[in-house]
Design a protein that fits this description.
This protein is an all-alpha fold. The protein is globular, with a radius of gyration of 24 Å.
Length: about 450
């Protein structure tokens, strides 16, 4: 069960570093200064957020094995701790990390050629041809999939693995999300998700699943899993599960970049256009989701004149294309919902009856309890808070959203609107216990104080 939010949602191994590290830093243009250890750690943390997917994907093309590639990338980050403090943070940290990781991978392959036969292959061996290096790597741009990161996403979404294992493993390895973040996206406890990822890796090894870049004819069968990965990547960035900032811009921009590449790769796939539309229409509001002081602003409080009009226009045009020609998929329907919100002149003028119809269609196409929760909120806007509370009560009895902070948050808001401040305070406290993002916690705490004042 995936906890991907939609636009109208309620409440909203340490290893020794390679000897080549110094040369890699010099070639990347390291500065002559000697930054403090804290500055180096901050630079490495930033490079991990921004560059992990690029570095892993590029290293995988050399290593041809997921475990080896991941180990070499981890080695590169460890090596950076020492090298960057001695030589300065390079002007292009991603290039330094990629060079170091790839050299580490080549060293490992040279030392033990038999390792490939013992671990699952990432890419099936092929004869070395024109334009390939000694590891058999093709020149940049060769092949069906032009983007290294997207190539690795398609590769990890292997049909021999269960869908949730495909998505979880890809989010962990390729997108660099933590086990905690992935567990929250799937609405499961962290130990459950850790075990799921471990089982997936063991299945790859035990079954000797050959990991290779899929051919053009195989891409459509893996597309839905790939779209799910990109959607969850965006969702995690749109409202960060934890931390001081509401948005993780690096994840948001990575997701949008990946789906734009997908549109170029598969221009006739309506669901690809639907996902791009959904992300553009949702992200158009990014600058208005918090006040200058960091306070969370709900949809009804946001300054619509500051929304990104170009993104809305592009997204709306994509929605029209995604809905044309047959029954729409879940991403096209979510994009249509986002378009209704984005094009409404004001919050009171939102076409709530149309949204209710769209959520009904989405629930039939994608029977998710998160969709049902969103529909309950819209139902309350059309037929009153009591109708929405009845639907939320059904979801509470269902139990699949236990631990999902937006369920008690939505309930609390409806209880507040219906004039039951004491009950609303209890629900807001339940949501606060589940929230780790600072902006969301501040919002919920303020609401608790507000309803306590009314109850008093």
């Amino acid at each position: 069960m995936l906890a991907a939010r939609t636009d109208g949602e309620a409440g909203a191994e340490d290893a020794a570093g390679p000897e080549a590290g110094a040369a890699a830093a010099a070639s990347a243009g390291a500065s002559a200064s000697h930054p403090a250890a804290a500055d180096v750690r901050a630079a490495i943390a930033d490079a991990h957020r921004r560059e992990w997917a690029f570095v892993l994907a590029a290293t995988a093309r050399v290593a041809r094995d997921i475990d080896i590639a991941e180990e070499c990338v981890q080695d590169a980050y460890v090596a950076a701790l020492d090298a960057w403090q001695r030589q300065g943070v390079p002007r292009n940290p991603g290039a330094w990390l990629t060079t170091t990781a790839r050299r580490r991978a080549l060293d490992m392959l040279r030392r033990d050629r038999t390792l490939r036969a013992k671990l699952p292959l990432l890419i099936e061996p092929a004869p070395v041809g024109p334009g390939q290096d000694e590891a058999g790597e093709a020149d940049e741009g060769d092949g069906v999939i032009p983007d290294d990161r997207l190539r690795l996403v398609f590769t990890c979404c292997h049909p021999a693995l269960a869908r949730e294992a495909q998505v979880a493993l890809t989010l962990r390895l390729v997108c660099g999300l933590t086990t905690t973040e992935i567990a929250q996206a799937f609405l499961v406890p962290e130990p459950t998700m850790a075990a799921r990822v471990t089982r997936a890796k063991k299945k790859i090894s035990a079954a000797r699943i050959a990991y290779r870049v899929p051919g053009e004819a195989e891409l459509p069968d893996r597309l839905d899993a790939v779209l799910t990965v990109v959607h969850l990547l965006y969702t995690t960035g749109h409202t960060a599960p934890a931390g001081d900032g509401l948005v993780r811009a690096d994840l948001v921009e990575r997701a949008i970049d990946l789906v734009r590449t997908l549109c170029t790769l598969m221009p006739d796939e309506r669901e690809v256009r639907g996902l791009l539309a959904l992300l553009l229409l949702t992200d158009a509001r990014r600058a208005t989701r918090t006040a200058d002081d960091g306070r969370l602003l709900l949809l009804e409080e946001q300054d619509r004149s500051q929304w990104d009009k170009a993104a809305i226009e592009e997204g709306a045009a994509l929605v029209t294309e995604a809905l044309r020609g047959g029954r729409p998929g879940r991403f096209a329907l979510q994009a249509a919902i986002a378009a209704v919100h984005a094009e409404a002149p004001s919050y009171p003028e939102t076409d709530w009856p149309q949204l209710l119809q769209l959520y009904g269609a989405l629930l039939r196409a994608w029977p998710s309890p998160v969709v049902a929760l969103n529909r309950a909120v819209v139902l309350a806007m059309v037929h009153g808070p009591a109708a929405g509370l009845a639907e939320i009560a059904d979801l509470e009895r269902d139990g699949r959203l236990a631990g999902y902070r937006y369920l008690p948050a939505a309930k609390a808001d409806l209880l507040r609107r219906i004039g039951r401040p004491a009950d609303a305070a209890v629900a807001y406290r339940s949501a606060l216990e589940l929230a780790d993002n600072a902006a969301e916690r501040a919002f919920l705490s303020a609401r608790i104080a507000e309803v306590h004042g009314r109850a008093g």
